[in-house]
Amino acid sequence: MVPLSWLLLFFGPLLTCPAVTELNTRPIIGIVVQQVTDKELLPFGNTFIADTYVKFLESAGCRVLCPDCQIFYKLAIESTASGHYFPIWGTCMGFQLLTALTTGMDLLSSTPSYNVSLPLNLTSHVSSSKMFRNAPPGLLQVLSQEQVTANFHHFGITAQTFKTNEKLNNFYRVLSTNRDENGVEFVSTMEARNYPIYGVQWHPEVNRFQWSSDYAFPHSPSAVWISQYFADFFVNEARKSQNHFESVEEEEAALIYNWTPKYIANISTYEQAYFF
Ligand SMILES: *[C@@H]1O[C@H](CO)[C@@H](O)[C@H](O)[C@H]1NC(C)=O
Ligand SMILES: *[C@@H]1O[C@H](CO)[C@@H](O)[C@H](O)[C@H]1NC(C)=O
Ligand SMILES: *[C@@H]1O[C@H](CO)[C@@H](O)[C@H](O)[C@H]1NC(C)=O
Predict the structure, then answer these.
(1) How far apart are CA 242 and CA 3, in angstroms?
(2) CB 241 within 8 A of CB 85
(3) Cβ burial, residue 251 (10 Å; 0-12/13-18/19+)
(4) CB within 8 A of 250, min separation 6: which ones?
(5) Which of 32, 164, 178, 271 has its CA 20 to 30 A from that of 54?
(6) End-to-end CA distance of the chain
(7) What percent of the chain has pLDDT over 90?
(8) pLDDT over 50 at 43, yes or no
């Protein structure tokens, strides 16, 4: 079986394991592939992972693989029920997918916020949240005052939708909101109440790993700092999972090191990507 933690859905180490007190200092995190929709990229493959997400995770001390299963959500829920840690992280579409998996519904509304970096409107749940309760001094100030969270979405979950959907409300706590180009409030950061499941509608990884000058990626020292903070946070979550491959051979064959990223900076907003 696969060891794991997700992005765009990252997910954490699978496979049964003893109740955890020790840290797993060799975590491996799975990243869910995206469909290639851009015509220019189709010659390379039908699915891809942008190198941005890989570097984001690797920068915090883990290895990455591309899992061939889509059952991470079910596994995370079942693992937690049986006392095993199985973290999941959703970025942008990953955030949106989490809300669909939790509710069984497509709750997206138009919330245009494209190519714009915003300070988060943090909620009162922040101080007790897993994501932020151990944040270093100054981090919340940067997040709430500086334009460090890059938004690249046309759709989202409005604060109103969240408030009125019992399943979402029971499962997640809203940690921040923002307003779209038309002033509509959408949920920008959330975490599950009883599971290690986290979602951000914005893109923490671009601050360090995307450079197209056609877009407004935030690269200030504080933007870089918060990007590293979230990578460290999630990889630390993955270290709480003892899930692992059954053999070193199986592990080596699955790691993303077996694939070579392609240069696509001249035909996309990414620098490089892995194609499958
Ligand atoms: C900030 O979030 C609160 C809800 O937590 C909301 O009532 C308020 O309108 C938001 N402010 C802005 C500027 O979006
Ligand atoms: C993104 O925003 C930047 C800064 O506001 C602007 O210079 C750039 O033209 C925008 N790019 C697109 C594709 O809209
Ligand atoms: C993009 O760069 C690659 C690698 O240098 C090159 O082979 C390809 O022709 C370029 N494509 C375009 C459209 O410029």
Answers:
(1) 9
(2) yes
(3) middle
(4) none
(5) 178
(6) 20
(7) 85
(8) yes
CB 199 within 8 A of CB 140: no
Q: If you search the block for the tokens 């997910």, which residue do you land on?
A: 11
Give the residue from 178, 219, 239, 205 showing the smallest Cα distance to 94.
Answer: 205
Residue of 84, 153, 203, 244 with catalytic role: 203
123 lines ligand 1 (CB under 6 A): yes
Annotation marks residue 69 as catalytic: no
- Confidence check: pLDDT of 18 > 60: no
Residue 209 to residue 146: CA distance in whole angstroms: 19
Per the residue annotation, which of 92, 153, 154, 219 is the catalytic one?
Answer: 92
Residue 47: phi, psi to the nearest 5?
A: -130, 155
CA-nearest residue for atom 4, ligand 1, is: 123
Using pLDDT thresholds of 50, 70 and 90, give the confidence band for residue 207. very high
Neighbours of 23 (CB within 10 A): 13
Residue of 153, 215, 219, 269 best suited for mutating to test ligand 2, as the one with most atoms within 8 Å of CB: 215
**Ligand 1 nearest atom to the CA of residue 177, by list position:** 2
Q: Supply the mean pLDDT for the chain.
A: 92
Whole-number Å distance, alpha carbon 121 to ligand 1 midpoint, is: 6
Question: Which residues fall within 8 angstroms of residue 241, CB to CB, at 6 or more apart?
Answer: 5, 12, 13, 17, 20, 24, 27, 84, 85, 86, 87
